[in-house]
Write a structure and sequence with these properties.
The structure is a homodimer.
Chain A (H helix, E strand, L loop, with lengths): L3 E6 L5 E3 L6 E2 L3 E10 L1 H7 L2 H5 L31 E4 L1 H6 L3 E6 L9 H14 L4 E5 L3 H13 L2 E6 L5 H10 L2 E5 L3 H15 L2 E2 L7 H6 L1 H9 L7 E5 L4 H15 L8 E7 L4 H7 L24 H10 L3 E5 L1 H15 L5 H15 L8 E6 L8 H4 L7 E2 L3 H11 L4
Parallel strand pairs in A: 6-14, 7-8, 7-10, 8-9, 11-12, 11-14, 12-13
Antiparallel strand pairs in A: 1-2, 1-4, 3-4, 5-6
Helix pairs in contact in A: 4-5, 5-6, 9-10, 10-12, 13-14
Chain lengths: ~425, ~425
């Protein structure tokens, strides 16, 4: 918190002092998401190139001075962040672009980028002597909250809709979360989480409501920049659900501009699935956001009522970026490409980023000489079912070398 | 390969020159697994404490001079190794021991410790201009080979038995492996893989046959030692399937002893499941290994015909260690404890290590003042089904705050 100057409502720009502990703007309520504003002039004295060079921390906490956390003992958290940034050669070649990097955030402790936000939520809870954190989610936000909280001895209450898949419950159950299953859809789970949080005074880890979460998410951009020696790419591509991640990506680069450590903010390409693309439509047609159905296999970005469209839209626009909408089929194809060409197994929501890049290249929105980074936001192990449906049937074979040779020949496999 | 002196058969001790490219001993065939022998006197000049201190590589390649790889450009591999070593406070307290660490190898790129061996197999294939690697496996060895090979542009042929679960195939399919499904059990899949490998001259990544794999696996021990400032624990606990991992753990500490960097090799506690414990029985009753059924939920260590019992038994004995056999029930309980107390989601085969530690504490084989490290060998996301079966039924709840309050009261939940 040392360099936090104040909070500011993204809607009405009302300022709140850094001692303010409310989550949203008092005037604008839930729509009035707060932005953490820093005193960059003061921060500059500490956060220099030298600061990074001498920093031995291999986690997101190397960026603690650029974040809104008060505590400075991070020794007990899960090891979130500082994930690999891979240079891609094969995929770049097949896409006919010169420079492609893949940031693999699926290697975070619970398997997704959401860990960056959840671990910050946990630290804020500890700061505020709040031992219980709650959210409504069926997916990565929930499991990452449950895992990070378990490590720190905090309790979690997770509100899930009726249709939650049993596999996703397994991770929550295992981490010891109190799971409340609502006889209704996500909207109803969210509504009950909200009233319970207000009633019991729990820490709120609902997407976008808590202003500190974006400050955790932005570290993915800080890492991309640092891992490229502060020479960030021309484009950063990531999928968009509620909008918090891409808002965080923008914020990270914005911080580095303010600190004079990079010269430009990469253009952001936000990607949604055709089956649920309210932010895409709002961007493309420059019209107010309309709620959407959630009809896509990319369930981590299937957010019909995004909670942070404003921050997301602002980020994409300010960066001179664009949005793409891609089909489930294109997403599954992209997932297979990422795995088979780069060895990076990604859940469909992550693969959507590559599908969006492919489309943007076709439409000349991104050109082959531009440097591009894709963010892999979630591990493919989170949702193997999505890929099993795609698999061709594998015939049973006798344990017999001749049969095997014939099989290879018949299939024309050149091995 | 710079410091490799020669290879030696673990059975008859015949020596083979470092230029030997066969996998096993010519006299002893498949049972004659080779051990890579180093010239530690020469290695000592380079591999000093200072060498480690100045090493910026955050992957297993920081140990390349201690390994049997010839190439030295590792920039294109997946980022294997240098996984977190967590100090555990809560679990240590509940087990009533002073010092407990957990090495989380489930955070490797494909989700298991096997990546350490697979990436080495891939580098050896490239060295030998072999573009195809094969193995028989249904589990982590297969997926880790497929992922690491995909990243490096190598082809993989995976022989799986008939009963392979569809979910496990999804990862292989996605990585682009050529999957051959045998109308038979694992033994038959293994037999066909062996004759195909011999016929086509593919690189062999079958457990234990390839002497370089243990050299990859040993890096987990090198990391544990280095992450504890070369003051290794009294005990290292890990589960045992075919025996290669625990043999690798021993080898890593053995290397460091030879280099004068540590003073003692930790005692090794090997853990098997009651449903499949041939190495445990051979150890306990000091009798020759007998094949076993594979009847346990811990499928990554369900190895009825272990390929490397000799190296494993030698390692455990030489370390002054012990073996434990634990029930599936104890394994699932341990998995839940690891997740809920430490936020580390582990597959059943990994959780077996904690179950073994608990049993060893009960039997006073390990005492509360000894420093212990558990290795988490595989990510829980690999096998969520194992945990769903355990879950208590969660009742559906109305979206209503009063109902929710009553529910919490009724359950006696203190939130």
């Amino acid at each position: 918190m040392k360099y936090v100057s104040h909070y500011e409502c993204v809607l009405c720009e009302t300022r709140y002092p850094k001692t303010y502990t409310g989550n949203t703007c008092e005037q604008c309520s839930d729509q009035g998401i707060l932005d953490v504003i820093y005193d960059y002039e003061a921060m500059k004295e500490t956060v220099t190139l030298q600061y990074f060079k001498n920093n031995p921390k291999r986690s997101l906490w190397r960026y603690a001075p650029l974040m809104s956390v008060e505590l400075n003992d991070f020794s007990q958290t899960l090891m979130v962040g500082w994930t690999p940034l891979y240079r891609s050669y094969k995929l770049a070649k097949s896409l006919n672009i010169n420079t492609l990097y893949i940031k693999d955030d699926g290697l975070n402790p619970t398997g997704s980028l959401k860990d960056r936000a959840s671990v910050v939520a946990c630290m804020k809870a500890i700061e505020q002597n709040n031992r219980i954190i709650a959210c409504a989610s069926t997916g990565n936000a929930a499991s990452s909250l449950a895992g990070n909280a378990a490590r720190l001895g905090l309790k979690t209450v997770i509100f899930v809709p009726k249709r939650v898949p049993k596999g996703k419950l397994a991770q929550l159950y295992s981490y010891g979360a109190e799971v409340i299953k609502i006889d209704g859809d996500y909207r109803e789970a969210y509504a009950l989480s909200k009233s319970a949080i207000n009633t019991f005074g729990w820490m709120n880890r609902n997407a976008a409501i808590n202003p500190h979460l974006v400050e955790g998410k932005k570290t993915v951009a800080l890492e991309i920049a640092e891992q490229l020696d502060f020479n960030p790419p021309d484009w950063v591509v990531c999928s968009v659900g509620d909008g918090c991640t891409i808002a965080g990506v923008y914020k990270g680069f914005y911080d580095l501009i303010q600190l004079g450590l990079i010269e430009k903010i990469p253009r952001l390409l936000g990607v949604q699935s055709e089956g649920c693309n309210p932010i895409y439509k709002a961007f493309k047609y420059a019209r107010p956001l309309e709620l959407a159905l959630e009809n896509t296999i990319a369930d981590s970005i299937a957010v019909g009522i995004p909670r942070n469209p404003l921050k997301a839209l602002k980020a994409i626009e300010a960066s001179g970026g664009a949005m793409m909408s891609v089909s489930d089929n294109a997403i599954l194809k992209a997932g297979k490409i990422l795995s088979s060409q780069e060895g990076i197994f990604s859940e469909p929501a992550s693969a959507a980023a590559l599908a969006g890049l492919i489309k943007a290249l076709e439409q000349n929105i991104i050109t082959s000489d531009e440097r591009v980074t894709i963010i892999n936001t979630g591990n493919g192990l989170k949702d193997t079912d999505a890929y099993t449906a795609q698999m061709e049937e594998i015939p049973l074979m006798k344990n017999d070398l001749e049969t095997f040779k014939e099989y290879l020949q018949r299939k024309g496999r050149k091995l």
